[in-house]
Amino acid sequence: MTAKVIDGKAFAAGLREQIKLQTAAMIAQGITPGLAVVLVGEDPASQVYVRSKEKQTRETGMNSFAHRLSAEAPQAELLALIEQLNNDPAVNGILVQLPLPAHMDEAAVINAIRPEKDVDGFHILNVGRLATGQKAMVPCTPLGCLMLLRDLLGDLSGKSAVVIGRSNIVGKPMAQLLLRDSATVTIAHSRTRNLPELCRQADIVVAAVGRPNFVQGDWIKPGAAVVDVGINRTDDGLVGDVDFAAASQIAGAITPVPGGVGPMTIACLLASTLTATARANGLPDPEGLTP
Ligand SMILES: NC(=O)C1=CN([C@@H]2O[C@H](COP(=O)(O)OP(=O)(O)OC[C@H]3O[C@@H](n4cnc5c(N)ncnc54)[C@H](OP(=O)(O)O)[C@@H]3O)[C@@H](O)[C@H]2O)C=CC1
Ligand SMILES: Nc1nc(=O)c2c([nH]1)NC[C@@H]1CN(c3ccc(C(=O)N[C@@H](CCC(=O)O)C(=O)O)cc3)C=[N+]21
C-alpha cells in the first residue's frame, strides 16, 4: 500500500485564501488586523521563518510589524518592547520568536505578553484555558496538525493517537487538542518504553522529536495517519522525524517534510491573528479558523 501524501502546502494556501477574504471583510468594517513579530538575535533559521511570516502576513492584507533586537539586548529591553506592543491598539497579535538567547527567561518573556495577543498560545493563561476546555489562543503547529487530521479523518472521536514529544510548544498542546476531540491519547517521550509497539496500535501518530528519520516504517499500523512535525537540517537537506520512504509504504496518509506541517504553522499564525482581532473587537470568531 502507498500512503496518500498530505499536501500541507496546498492546504495552507487554501487557508490563507480564506483568511484573506475574512481580513478584507474586517478591513471594510474599519479594522485592520496587525501582527508584531519580535526576533532577538541573528539565528539564520529564525531569520528565514520571520521573513516568511512577515511576507505572508502582508499578502493576506494584515499589517506586519517587525522588531529586531540584538542577541545581547538585556531582557528589560525586550520586556519594554512587549509592553509597548501590549498597549498598541494596531497590534492584535504578538509573536516572540523562540528560542531566545540563553540570558533571557523564556517563561517570563512569554508571560509578559497580553494573553489576548498571544497568537502562539504559549502564555500560561492560554495553556490553562486549553487544558480546562475554555476559549484559548491555541499554539499554531498543533492547530495546523489538527486541521490536517480533521480534514483527513473527519471525527477523531475514539481514535487512538500517539504523540511523540512532550514539549510545551508542540507535544503537550497537540495532545490537548486531540483529547478535546475525544481521541484516546498517549504522550510518548525519551523515557517511554516499547515505543515501536505503542505506535503500532495507533490510528494517528504525531512525531515531534527533533531526530531525523526517528520513526521507523515498521512502527506504523497499516493505514494509520502519520503527521511529521520534525524539521531537521541534514546533509541530505531538510528531513522530518519519520522515515518517510519506509512509512509511506505502510501508512494510510502521511505529511511530507518540507511541505507538510511547516506551511500550516504559518497559516495558523495568521488565522490566530484574525481570531485575536475579532475577539478584541467583539466580533464572532472567524469561520473555520478556530478549533
Ligand atoms: N513544522 C513546524 O512548524 C515546527 C517544527 N518543529 C520541529 O519539531 C521537532 C520537535 O520540536 P520541539 O517539540 O520544540 O522539540 P523539543 O526538543 O522541545 O522536544 C522533543 C521531544 O522529543 C522527545 N524525545 C527525544 N528523544 C526521544 C526518543 N529517543 N524517544 C522518544 N522521545 C524522544 C523529548 O523527550 P523528553 O521530554 O523526555 O526529553 C521531547 O519531549 C523539532 O524537529 C522542531 O524543529 C517545532 C516547532 C514547529
Ligand atoms: N514563537 C515561536 N513560534 C513558532 O511557531 C516557532 C518558533 N517560535 N520558533 C521556531 C519554530 C519552528 N517553526 C516553523 C515554522 C514554519 C516552518 C516551515 O514553513 N517549514 C517549511 C520549510 C521551510 C524551510 O525550508 O526551512 C516546510 O516544512 O515546508 C517550519 C518551522 C515555528 N516555530
From TrEMBL:
It catalyses: (6R)-5,10-methenyltetrahydrofolate + H2O = (6R)-10-formyltetrahydrofolate + H(+); (6R)-5,10-methylene-5,6,7,8-tetrahydrofolate + NADP(+) = (6R)-5,10-methenyltetrahydrofolate + NADPH. Its EC number is 1.5.1.5, 3.5.4.9. Belongs to the tetrahydrofolate dehydrogenase/cyclohydrolase family. It comes from Paracoccus onubensis. Homodimer. Keywords: Amino-acid biosynthesis, Histidine biosynthesis, Hydrolase, Methionine biosynthesis, Multifunctional enzyme, NADP, One-carbon metabolism, Oxidoreductase, Purine biosynthesis. GO terms for cellular component: cytosol. This is Bifunctional protein FolD. InterPro entries: Aminoacid_DH-like_N_sf, NAD(P)-bd_dom_sf, THF_DH/CycHdrlase, THF_DH/CycHdrlase_cat_dom, THF_DH/CycHdrlase_CS, THF_DH/CycHdrlase_NAD-bd_dom. CDD domains: NAD_bind_m-THF_DH_Cyclohyd. The gene is folD. NADP(+) binds at G165, R166, S167, I231. One of its GO terms (molecular function) is methylenetetrahydrofolate dehydrogenase (NADP+) activity.
